[in-house]
Amino acid sequence: MWLREHGLRATHGRIAIVRLLDASSVPLTLTDIHEKVGVKGCDFATVFRFISILEKKELVERVAWMDGTTRHEIRSRDGHRHHHHYLICRTCHKVEPIEECVVERFEDQIAKQRGYAGLSHSLQLSGVCPECQKPAKKAAKKRG
Q1: Cβ atoms within 10 A of the Cβ of 3, count?
Q2: Amino acid 128: pLDDT
Q3: CA–CA separation, 96 and 103 (whole Å)
Q4: pLDDT exceeds 70 at position 87
Q5: pLDDT at position 130, please?
Q6: In b/e form, how buried is each residue of 58-72, taking b as 16+ CB within 10 angstroms?
Q7: Scanning 14, 22, 66, 83, which has its CA 20 to 30 A from the CA of 77?
């Protein structure tokens, strides 16, 4: 199992946390994780400690979200750095991952030019999703 390969005990709670992070298409807050795996016997302190361990082992990535929250996503299991970019609706807060990364080439160029190593980035775009635009369009037509 993946946890044991990284020198970690594979408890029911830890397995549930890893499965949750692995299945999620968006980064999760500690509260999100606790609410979804709390029934597996994980209190909030256990979730916090385990996520901290995963971060130290560089198995989980911490993401600073544009709303000020800190979220976590699992890194790729193949050893490559895993990151996404996100499109976030300002109205309903729906999050859609964007798989394409146009920033990586620029990141490499900046690292070489400035002599930096280990650069990383995150990108979050916000707007109003098509569903949330619908009521506003209808209301505007009625007024007009």
Answers
A1: 17
A2: 92
A3: 18
A4: yes
A5: 92
A6: ebbbebebeeeeebb
A7: 66
- Which two three-digit tokens encode residue 10? 């594979």
**What is the residue whose two structure tokens read 């979220």?**
71
pLDDT digits (tens, 9 = 90+) for 18-59: 999 988 888 899 999 999 997 767 899 999 999 999 999 988
126 contacts 66 by C-beta, under 8 angstroms: yes
Residue pair 60/70 in contact by the 8 Å Cβ criterion: no
Give the phi and the psi of residue 101 in degrees, each rounded to 5.
-130, 105
Task: Please state, in angstroms and rounded to a whole number, the distance separating the CA atoms of residues 34 and 132.
Answer: 29
- pTM over the 0.90 mark: no
Residues 6+ positions from 113 with CB-CB distance below 8 Å: none
The number of beta carbons lying within 10 Å of the beta carbon of residue 86 is: 20
